[in-house]
């Protein structure tokens, strides 16, 4: 079982590397990593387990956060209608994105960042993702609003980008016009 001790923190070189694509069929180790990542997210959202194991709540995690520079991510997040988006994605890529932008009212956080970073992280409000499941079956997934923000945050990790790289350095509280704010 993964714990917070397994997650690397900002400053670790794996967080700034562009992760390599996985090849299919996946190794048992790559499949286990995906399962463990999703299990971590589920456990971190269970109050009892989170307290017992000292887990910070998370809705997404990428392999580089575990010092594994492979294009693997997991998300476990509900949208505003309580629909669950629970996936392990291999080699995910953004196929398309909306012109409309969105951000979270309180900014973003990250399991690899042990400090609050004020500022808006403006992202696409809707994205379509191409990825593969653990069996190499192609997936085309659409996300909007909060789940779209989460999956973009995790794909950024696969590209060596941290969420705070998107914050306006001169004015972190600057919000461009016509950006939808969630939360």
In short, what is this structure?
The protein has three helices and eight strands.
Describe the protein.
The chain has helices spanning 28-44, 47-53, 146-158, and strands spanning 60-62, 72-78, 84-97, 101-104, 123-124, 126-132, 138-144, 179-182. The chain is of the alpha+beta class and 183 residues long. The chain has a single domain (4-182), classed as Peptide Deformylase, CATH 3.90.45. The strands form 2 sheets. A 5-stranded antiparallel β-sheet has the order 1-2-3-6-7. Strands 5-4-8 form a 3-stranded mixed β-sheet, covered by helices on one side. It starts with 27 loop residues before the first helix and ends with a strand.
Counting helices, strands and paired strands, the structural category is alpha+beta
> Which architecture per CATH?
Alpha-Beta Complex
Instruction: Let me know the largest β-sheet.
Output: 5 strands, antiparallel
Q: How many H/I helical runs?
A: 3
Which spans of ≥5 residues are poorly predicted at pLDDT below 50?
A: none
The CATH superfamily is identified as Peptide deformylase
- Provide the number of structural domains: 1
Strand content: 25-35%
Amino- and carboxy-terminal Cα gap: 31 Å
Q: Which fold name fills CATH's third level, the topology?
A: Peptide Deformylase
| Rough outline | globular
Percent helix range: 10-25%
Number of strands: 8
**Average pLDDT figure:** 97
Compute the CA-based radius of gyration.
16 Å
Order of helices and strands: HHEEEEEEEHE
Classified by CATH, the class is Alpha Beta
